[in-house]
Amino acid sequence: MAYRKKTLRRLTPEARKLAKLIGELESVSRRLKGLMPVVERLEIDVRAELKRQAYYKGKLQPEGSIELEQSNKGSNRC
Known about the structure:
Blueprint: H1 5-10, H2 13-73
């Protein structure tokens, strides 16, 4: 909540500092509320990307190792 100059002038210096801090707190909380949807969306995207990487890493890794093992046996030489 913004305070009028007239109100602030009537307050003691400590009360003015407190009013300023309360105003900053309200401002920060408004900005954080605006950032929450962005952060939530980023978390969802990160989880999806990690799952995608784990899926492809698990799916592609054994096939590659099988091909390497077969080529090292030397049975099909030219």
